[in-house]
Design brief:
two-stranded antiparallel ribbon; mainly alpha; 19 helices
Length: about 400
């Protein structure tokens, strides 16, 4: 009984019985999610301050591990918008090597949280705090995308929200109208396609159209290829990070932030999936899976990962039956990377910026924000606004800690 309590959900479902019909459902849903995850993984990686292939490595390795070892039937894991702000700040302070150590430590923390049965942690995070920091992160993501959306020649983006807009005001005279045009066109298409053809993954259509437009007419805008060069068509060999006491001490606070944010975001995603399906996830198994996934991602040159709410919801809507859908999503991403690497480099950065602007709007939960700010009790509104403004103007740690206190 004790062993069964810790067995991954994928093993339990397979033991209960898994038919060809179930496999077909998982194949369709996993492939659908992979198509959506492909541009998002690269966009989140670029927004986090690393090259796009690191986002793909994360979605493949962490996505597979989270589905295989996790406690949710439907969870899809990978790089997410929630981590963009934190990872960008860590890379700016400590470089990618620092992020590797911070994420490795965060993975160990998540495993320990699961082993010590701290999966109910989400119950103690006040709802106004969750909405406050999520909306704050959404606004910061929106802000960070203005550089590529307008094609501004800014080499190194500042982390602080106010400094970013001061820089934009200074550089706006150098706007690339071609990039701005591609960005606006992509943004409008994303919104229109979502309403007209809700079952078709709009980001992929927009990426194909904008890439073709730029390539055929040789439009002078920055693309993945011009910014990052050629991308690999396969996974790198795993390698252990180089640890030192000095580096561990320097990144330890960031590791705590990554672990807590990963725990909150992944368990929130599980709760959303349960609400959509009537299923019940196992939170401690999920935390252990998230920990293993983050360590695995780093070993293969990726970044931090967690449960992705939007992709998990898409997985459910596409008819997923089991965690095998998430594993298929990871395998399909590897296949896409191998087959389409020469086409991926043609994607304009302005189009990826437009995709992230739409992601930021969806993530902002504006209707919940407005309801708490205007219609809830005054205490809830105060907590929400304090968390939101401190997250945007100072950092996520300060916002969440102050909101909870």
């Amino acid at each position: 009984m004790h062993l069964k309590h810790w067995l991954p959900r994928s093993v339990l479902i397979f033991k209960e019985g898994y038919s060809l019909k179930n496999g077909y459902s998982d194949l369709i849903s996993g492939t659908t999610v992979a198509i959506i995850a492909l541009p998002l993984a690269m966009a989140f990686a670029i927004a986090s301050g690393v090259s796009p292939e690191k986002g793909l490595f994360t979605a493949i390795i962490a996505g597979f591990i989270i589905s295989f070892f996790g406690g949710s039937r439907y969870q899809i894991g990978g790089p997410t918008g929630a981590f963009v702000v934190v990872l960008y700040a860590v890379i700016l302070k400590h470089g990618y090597d620092g992020l590797v150590i911070a994420t490795f430590l965060a993975g160990i923390m998540l495993i320990l949280m699961g082993m010590f049965k701290l999966g109910n942690i989400i119950k103690y995070i006040p709802y106004p705090v969750t909405v406050g920091f999520t909306s704050g992160i959404a606004l910061i993501i929106f802000s960070s995308q203005m550089k590529d959306f307008f094609g501004l020649p800014i080499e190194k983006m500042p982390v602080e929200f106010t400094e970013q807009w001061a820089r934009y005001a200074h550089e706006i005279v150098h706007i690339n109208y071609f990039a701005f045009g591609i960005g606006i066109l992509s943004f409008i298409l994303l919104l229109k396609l979502r309403h007209i053809f809700p079952k078709i993954p709009a980001p992929i259509i927009v990426i194909v159209l904008s890439s073709a437009l730029v390539a055929i007419f040789n439009i002078p805008v920055e693309t993945i290829g011009s910014k990052f060069g050629a991308l690999p068509s396969s996974l790198p060999e795993p390698s252990l990070p180089i640890f030192s006491l000095e580096k561990i001490r320097a990144v330890f606070p960031d590791a705590i932030t990554i672990a807590l944010l990963g725990a909150i975001e992944s368990l929130l995603s599980c709760v959303v999936a349960d609400g959509m399906t009537g299923d019940r996830h196992h939170s401690n198994k999920e935390l252990i899976a998230q920990g293993i996934a983050n360590i695995g991602s780093i070993l293969f040159g990726g970044i931090a990962a967690t449960g992705a709410i939007a992709r998990t919801a898409t997985n459910i809507k596409a008819g997923a039956f089991s965690p095998f859908s998430g594993m298929i999503h990871a395998v399909m991403l590897l296949v896409f990377m191998f087959l389409f690497v020469k086409l991926i480099v043609l994607i304009p950065l302005a189009t990826l910026a437009a995709i992230l602007i739409v992601v930021a709007w969806n993530m902002s939960e504006f209707h919940h924000f407005k309801a708490i700010a205007l219609k809830s009790e005054r205490n809830d509104a105060v907590v929400l606004l304090i968390t939101f403004f401190l997250t945007v103007l100072i950092d996520l740690n300060t916002g969440v800690q102050t909101g909870i206190m």
